[in-house]
Amino acid sequence: SQQGEEDPQALSIQEGENATMNCSYKTSINNLQWYRQNSGRGLVHLILIRSNEREKHSGRLRVTLDTSKKSSSLLITASRAADTASYFCATDDSSYKLIFGSGTRLLVRP
Amino acid sequence: KAGVTQTPRYLIKTRGQQVTLSCSPISGHRSVSWYQQTPGQGLQFLFEYFSETQRNKGNFPGRFSGRQFSNSRSEMNVSTLELGDSALYLCASSLNGDSGNTIYFGEGSWLTVV
Q: Are the beta carbons of B48 and A100 separated by less than 8 Å?
């Protein structure tokens, strides 16, 4: 079963705007990873944040982690049409598996 | 270096048949895991292998099985296929599967059961 939910389920923004996606999870974690999936394709790794980290940046991506609230957010700044995809968070609890959220479908309109 | 490679990319099978999917991990990666993705259930963990040993298995029936070879390549098999097995099957690899490893995914194998 899935670890938690992502919010919103779908997001439509204009190119150049920022997109924020939220992920909640249920159990204690060691780290959390964000992935992107273009329609019908595999998952592309975006960023990994460890449980002792609060914020991490990678290019136009900013990820925050609040372990007290069991939540994470992914911010994509200055979005582009090419960012159109589904975004998933996945948690790792040291059991050699990832537990995925339900995903956010992002549409960036040109 | 090459990413995670999965074959075949697309296949169509008939109910009752069996299917074998293959995965070659990134060079140097020894942990391979498999996931099933469906519209209804999302992404679900199937199993993980390291050094030819299964270390964890998801909540799937015994019709789903896998193995890993000494070169870290992996296969998964689904026997007696059901319509509900239609899904995207994703293989992933990491250095050793330990917590904190970045896990890289392949493009997946699209299985349609008719």
A: no
Listed as ranges, residues in chain B with pLDDT below 70 are 1
Taking a contact as any Cβ pair under 8 Å apart, which residues of chain A between 14 and 53 contact chain B? Answer: 30-31, 33, 35, 40-45, 48, 50
- Are B4 and B25 contacting, i.e. CB atoms less than 8 angstroms apart? yes
pLDDT at B1: 64
Which tokens hold the place of B109?
A: 């194998």
Q: Chain B partners of A45 at a C-beta cutoff of 8 Å? A: 102-105
For A25-77, what is each residue's pLDDT tens digit?
998 889 999 999 998 899 999 999 999 999 999 999 999 999 999 999 999 99
Angle at Cα B49 formed by Cα B46 and Cα B54, nearest 5°?
A: 80
In the numeric block, which tokens belong to residue B93?
């690899």
Buried b or exposed e, range A47-69, using 16+ CB within 10 angstroms: bbbebeeeebeeeebbbbbeeee
Beta bridge partners of B93: B32, B104
Candidates B48, B62, B46; CA nearest to A95 is B48
Taking only the tens place, the pLDDT of each residue in B6-15 is 999 999 999 9
CA distances to A5, A80, B16, B45 from A18, rounded to whole Å, are 21, 10, 48, 31
Which residues from chain A sit within 8 angstroms of residue B105, using beta carbons? 35, 42-45
B33 closest CA partner among B80, B109, B89, B112? B89
pLDDT band at A94 (very low <50, low <70, confident <90, very high): confident
